[in-house]
Design goal:
Blueprint lengths: L2 H12 L15 E4 L5 E5 L21 E3 L20 E3 L20 E3 L20 E3 L9 H5 L6 E3 L18 E5 L15 E5 L1
Parallel strand pairs: 2-3, 3-4, 4-5, 5-6, 6-7, 7-8, 8-9
Antiparallel strand pairs: 1-2
Length: 203
């Protein structure tokens, strides 16, 4: 089945028309094709999915960017690993509190936006996402598991604004590891006076 047929199937499942656009962004819904007429970018945010993942979505083998914000999703399916080309997932503003192990089986995943969900801790599997550069837990309930982010050899941008953090393992930060670290709106008790090993430190 070609991607054009999969898009037609997806349109039927979400009961919402999707247009091909020149460039998919957080503000523009629809899908974008690569030079081989394969779907590379998809924005189905605010499509009233009512917590259900459309099965057609998980057939888009060439998908690199997925924006599925604000759809009342409570989980990420194991079948997300079918999308082996995926580089960026934006799943903010849903009802998710955990990640499937299959997330770590996405070999190209670089950016994972999980803001405004219900995470209480950082999942250990984050350490196994070998290409992950950016992790966003803004506006969650995270109080533990930060060491799993800092044990990563690839993550350089960390967003933890407005969580439940009392302590932060600053001693685990390696030189030249972190480009940006946002800890604003937490009640962290062990904040350092300065953090020279982080280029952009917000607290």
């Amino acid at each position: 089945m070609g991607d054009s047929q999969i898009i037609e199937e997806l349109i039927g499942q979400i009961n919402r028309n999707l247009k091909q656009v020149r460039k998919v962004t957080w503000l523009i819904k629809g899908y974008q094709l690569n030079e081989y007429d394969q779907v590379s970018h998809l924005n189905i945010s605010k499509c009233n999915l009512k917590g259900k993942w459309p099965s057609a979505l998980l057939k888009l083998k060439h998908l690199e960017f997925l924006d599925i914000q604000e759809n009342k999703l409570e989980y990420i399916p194991d079948e997300i690993s079918n999308l082996q080309k995926l580089k960026c997932i934006d799943i903010r503003n849903n009802n998710i509190n955990s990640l499937p192990q299959s997330i770590s089986q996405l070999p190209l995943l670089q950016k994972l936006y999980l803001g405004n969900n219900y995470f209480t801790k950082v999942p250990e599997l984050i350490e196994d996402c070998n290409k992950l550069e950016l992790i966003d837990f803004t506006d969650n309930l995270v109080s533990s598991g930060i060491e799993h982010i800092l044990n990563s050899d690839s993550i350089s941008n960390i967003y933890l604004k407005n969580n439940q953090l009392k302590q932060f393992p600053f001693h685990l930060i390696k030189s030249n590891q972190i480009k940006e670290l946002n800890l604003m709106e937490n009640d962290i008790e062990n904040l350092p006076k300065n953090l020279l090993v982080v280029k952009n430190f917000l607290f």
